[in-house]
Design a protein that fits this description.
heterodimer; A: about 375 residues; alpha/beta; Rossmann fold; 2 domains; seven-stranded parallel sheet; two-stranded antiparallel sheet; B: about 325 residues; seven-stranded mixed sheet; five-stranded mixed sheet; 14 strands; globular
């Protein structure tokens, strides 16, 4: 037998609808009602402002370590917009704009980074999962959720996120492999923000793109300009529709850029050049989408300050609610199992007695 | 009543649960056509089809991760890991997610999955097939850890695990899989997780054990009685987490003496927790220090030395005599 090319389909595309300099491909432009466009803009702006507020609160010692989403708002917002309310969204920790679109309250986001488990309080009408920290591990239960949707035949789709660093984790590959084998309604969105703390995208993998990882699993992969909200909407709609109708999983690489630090615990100046950041700033999704709406006469000098004011008021209220969140010092002991063990009950009593004893103005509790 | 091996009894528990509840799924490597490497899933593919008895690709973390996600959509997955030594390939899914979701979401999302795996030594297996990692899992808050010792309690505990609202690590002692048969009632029965049992009542000393070590410990108790006239009480813990501290302390308070037996290494083994519970609650009832008869603080040796490593009746008898004659 001679050497021959293998019969493997490797059709891989990259998608852009609205370029950084404002050029619009009208043939690809998604149909989005004007009211939605304006709400999408407000959500993107709210995410940016919430990020800024959280950074400020962190610097003032009023919040814990914070991981900003700055620059990546379009990548999660476009995905969330393309979902039905009943679909599942499995985030990592840079999907702020998408979660706001889904209806997550601002103060819930603050509570998470402020050290309250209440930050994991998924709004009751949503099938969303809370933030996931261990990198790419969420791909696995996201895949399991998609499997459940398929077995139930409920027509739902699960969208899971991870980052470029996450594509080096085994969980990313195992989840894609299972999703391919069982043809699951899973959309896995990689937010390629080019940096995994200090490790650049070029050091994560020798692959030219992350989208091409799909080829190995026999599923579709698509690269999209992740800073182009319209392109993200088009790509996700296509993937979600395919998943919903039995067409199986899709890997979407959303090419974006982390304009800020990994978290407030690191200084990007140590590992990346200012020149690179400056190169990406003009590709920021927010001004790009804003200019698009201005061209469509959906934003103008009159409405924009009103939107800013509304967001500021919402943020102020959210900060108040966040900072007034009560802390129950024994609650964490009550959710280990559905029914507490005798040991946990004893530890609850032990802690309660200790707390009562140390509080000023109260007499020490007597433990029998 | 039927006389069943532990393998058959576990198979019965799985089939019963799958017949009653369409949300019960079995997934793992080789659980379908091969019916499990120890045949615990025999007949399940045939009876319930490939959407409920699911052969998976070879990836332990994905089997557990899928189980977590399936649980979120209302299923009760029973995940099989092929051997104890491979469970560490899924450890992060168990530690980071399965055990935490209830707590971190305050009950909104829970993980009602069972993670079954063959456990322990004694069957001349190759390396990574004979581990006893129960203390590693028992240390993780949010997990229940169950180790049956015979066919009847295995069937009843597996049923309890499947219907438990929280994740259960279910260790199946390989050495017991086919070593003896036991009467198992026709009607389904359950045993409460976290409760041990008195396997042999006695007055002079308490021997505390679980899993495959139960039979060895009972053998030692007979020798203590027959040769030395010592009447040992043997406790079968059945669960490593929650631990039945009440059963342990009630017995030790009566006998004043205790020896803990397990096949896992001694350092930070379950025996350390058991001794601590005794010291905390029953110190003044003790007539002698509590002894531990355990595996050694090494990896379990290859099978030429396996029986040297595993506790045997002679070691247990010697420890019991030292305790009684202290």
């Amino acid at each position: 037998m001679p050497r021959e090319p293998l019969p493997i389909s490797t059709r891989l595309e990259t998608l852009s609808v609205l370029t950084a300099d404002g050029q619009l491909d009208t043939a690809l432009e998604p149909a989005v009602p004007p009211a939605d466009l304006r709400r999408l803009y407000k959500t993107m702006l709210a995410a940016r402002r919430l990020d800024e507020r959280c950074l400020m609160l962190q610097r003032q010692g009023r919040m814990g370590t914070y991981g900003p989403s700055k620059g990546q708002e379009a990548a999660s917002l476009g995905v969330a917009y393309a979902l039905e309310r009943s679909d599942w969204l499995v985030p990592t920790f840079r999907e702020l704009a998408g979660l706001l679109w889904r209806g997550w309250p601002m103060h819930t986001w603050m509570l998470y980074w402020g050290g309250h488990e209440a930050g994991n309080a998924v709004p009751p009408d949503l099938n969303d999962l809370p933030i996931c920290v261990p990198i790419a591990s969420q791909c696995q239960y996201g895949m399991g959720i998609a499997w459940g949707c398929k077995l139930r035949g409920d027509g739902r789709v699960c969208v899971t996120f991870c980052g470029d660093g996450g594509t080096s984790e085994g969980d990313f590959h195992e989840a894609l492999n299972f999703a391919g084998v069982y043809n699951l309604p899973l959309v896995l969105v990689v937010q390629n923000n080019h940096w995994a703390i200090s490790i650049p995208r070029s050091c994560q993998t020798r692959s030219a793109t992350l989208a091409q990882k799909a080829v190995a699993y026999g599923i579709d992969g698509l690269q999209v300009d992740g800073n182009d909200l319209l392109a993200v909407i088009v790509a996700t709609r296509e993937a979600v529709e395919k998943a919903r109708t039995g067409g199986g999983p899709t890997l979407i690489e959303a090419v974006t850029y982390r304009l800020s630090m990994h978290t407030t615990a690191d200084d990007p100046k140590k590992y990346r050049s200012e020149a690179e950041v400056q190169e990406w700033e003009p590709r920021d999704p927010l001004p790009r989408f804003r200019a698009y709406l201005q061209k469509k006469k959906l934003l103008d000098a009159k409405i924009e300050p009103v939107i800013e004011e509304e967001i500021t008021a919402e943020l102020d209220a959210a900060v108040r609610q966040y900072e007034q969140q009560p802390v129950d010092p024994t609650e964490f002991l009550r959710h280990v199992f559905a029914a507490p063990t005798p040991e946990l009950l004893a530890q609850q009593a032990e802690l309660a007695a200790h707390l009562a004893a140390r509080r000023p103005g109260r007499s020490p509790a007597h433990v029998s | 009543m039927a006389l069943l091996t532990m393998v058959k009894a576990l198979n019965l528990a799985l089939a019963e649960a799958m017949r009653t509840d369409p949300n019960v799924l079995v997934l793992g490597q080789d659980v379908g056509r091969d019916e499990g490497v120890f045949r615990v899933t025999e007949g399940l593919l045939q009876e319930f089809g490939p959407n409920r008895c699911i052969d998976t690709p070879l990836a332990e973390a994905a089997i557990i991760g899928a189980g977590i996600g399936l649980g979120f959509t209302g299923f009760r997955p029973v995940c099989e890991l092929q051997f104890d030594g491979f469970s560490f390939q899924a450890f992060h899914q168990i530690e980071n997610h399965a055990r935490r979701f209830r707590n971190r979401t305050r009950g909104r999302y829970t993980c009602p999955l069972v993670i079954r795996m063959p456990y322990g030594g004694g069957i001349r297996a190759i390396e990574h097939h004979s581990e006893a990692p129960e203390a590693t899992y028992a240390h993780l808050a949010g997990l229940k850890v169950v180790i049956p010792s015979g066919p009847r309690n295995a069937r009843a505990l597996l049923r309890a695990a499947i219907y438990d609202p929280d994740p259960v690590i279910f260790f199946e002692p390989k050495a017991v899989y086919r070593s003896f048969r036991e009467e198992v009632p026709d009607e389904p029965e359950t045993l409460p997780i976290g409760k041990g049992a008195v396997a042999r009542p006695g007055r002079d000393i308490t021997l505390i054990t679980y899993g495959a070590m139960l039979r060895v410990t009972l053998e030692a108790a007979e020798e203590l009685k027959d040769v030395h006239g010592i009447d040992a009480e043997v406790l079968d813990l059945l669960s490593a987490a929650p631990l039945d501290g009440e059963l342990i302390n009630q017995s030790v308070r009566r006998t004043g003496r205790a020896v803990v037996v397990h096949e896992a290494p001694r350092h930070c083994g379950l025996g350390a927790e058991i001794v601590a519970r005794i010291v905390e609650d029953s110190l003044l009832y003790l007539e002698a220090p509590v002894k531990r008869v355990t595996g050694f603080d090494t990896v379990i040796p290859y099978f030429q030395n396996e029986l040297t490593y595993l506790p045997d009746a002679a070691r247990i008898v010697r420890a019991a005599l030292e305790t009684v004659n202290f």
